[in-house]
Design brief:
Number of strands: 9
Helix content: 40-55%
Largest sheet: 5 strands, antiparallel
Structural class: alpha+beta
Oligomer: single chain
Order of helices and strands: HEEEHEEHHHHEEEEHHHH
Length: 360
């Protein structure tokens, strides 16, 4: 059973969206309203077309903060922050992002704040079934095509990290004391505490935090604007070229390796699942050594302390997975097992990383 992703009624959302749109663009109608099957469990996405004589028909996507009464995956959904991040990236870089049209901070029209952006045509490597499985368009591609996609995607990170002046992204600084990395990890500790409030703790996640403290980088480096959810499943591709970078809700000022570790590990997460099901997966795609070397050539910065950042990516993902599992428990879709660590889909690989025996 797939976990529940929304508690909202799509038809009711559509009626309310049409009414709101008329206040922003008189005479306009929202048509073709759909909720994509791949909708996530954090911010929700609504796809629709704007029918209006000026401009002509325009394809749009709406990002709506999660329903606060629906056992949300994250404790906060700052849509204005995401909207501002998209505008900054569009204005200061050549990283392709959807053009943002409107921000609505009043929860009254749709029940929560949201923003509207233009929808970019293309294809996205799927999460369900993962793109590493046989049958996906990326798995069916040739090695040269996948290498082209990898190179272009690492190029996105290189340009994002190098083109945005950190001072202009100061609104993405995380609260707390110390440098950007200490604040980033402290925010994850706070998130974990929120996830387990009143529920069983995860010894594995806590062991991973302990391991991080033991291998902490001696020099994390200057922070940059990091995408946060830097993975190919959040990129729209035209053929094998990126045409839109999506999902900026985890953007923050942090060391650039935070993005690199997430990119490499999230591919390994899907690849490991695929191998566990008896298929070959995509072992050559987004290999750590290739990503590091390519990024160094593009930026002049050789990634450092990547064992730390790969573990940190797996740890961050584990906290999200634990929250998703507890959300299923909340909705009666699952029960809490004797060992809560088994709720983390990648508990075996995370344990191997904590023990220092996970393959590179």
């Amino acid at each position: 059973m797939r976990p529940r992703t929304s508690t909202r009624d799509p038809e009711e959302l559509g009626r309310r969206l049409t009414a709101w749109l008329g206040t922003r663009l008189p005479g306009a109608k929202a048509t073709g309203i759909t909720v994509p099957a791949s909708n996530g469990m954090s911010s929700e996405t609504l796809l629709f077309d704007i029918e209006h004589p000026r401009p002509p028909l325009r394809a749009c996507a709406l990002r709506l903060a999660a329903d606060p009464s629906a056992y949300t995956v994250f404790p906060e959904y700052d849509m204005a922050r995401q909207y501002r991040t998209l505008r900054l990236v569009a204005e200061r870089t050549d990283v392709p992002v959807p053009r943002v049209l409107w921000l609505e901070e009043d929860p009254e029209p749709l029940g929560a704040p949201f923003f509207v952006m233009e929808r970019v045509a293309g294809r996205v490597p799927p999460d369900v079934m993962p793109y590493t499985y046989e049958g996906s368009w990326l798995h069916a591609a040739g090695e040269a095509e996948r290498e082209h996609l990898e190179a272009a995607t690492v190029g996105l990170l290189a340009r994002l990290h190098g083109q945005v002046p950190p001072g202009e992204a100061d609104f993405l600084s995380l609260p707390g004391e110390g440098d950007a990395l200490h604040r980033h990890v402290a925010a994850q500790r706070a998130y974990y505490a929120w996830v387990i409030d009143g529920l069983p703790r995860s010894p594995l996640i806590e062991a991973a935090f302990d391991r991080l403290a033991r291998i902490w980088p001696s020099e994390p480096g200057a922070p940059v604007l990091t995408w946060g959810d830097a993975r190919i499943g959040n990129v729209v591709y035209d053929g094998f070229d990126p045409v839109a970078v999506l999902d900026w809700e985890m953007a923050a000022l942090a060391p650039r390796e935070v993005d690199l570790g997430w990119t490499v590990y999230l591919h390994r997460f899907f690849h490991d699942l695929t191998v566990g099901s008896g298929q070959r997966g995509l072992p050559e795609l987004l290999r750590r050594d290739r990503v590091e070397a390519r990024y160094a050539r593009l930026t002049g910065h050789t990634p450092r302390d990547m064992d730390f950042y790969l573990l940190y990516a797996a740890l961050r993902h584990a906290i999200v997975m634990l929250r998703v599992a507890y959300r299923q428990v909340h909705f009666g879709e699952a029960a809490v097992p004797a060992d809560p660590d088994t709720l983390i889909l990648h508990h075996d690989s995370l344990r191997a990383m904590v023990q220092g025996v996970y393959g590179s």
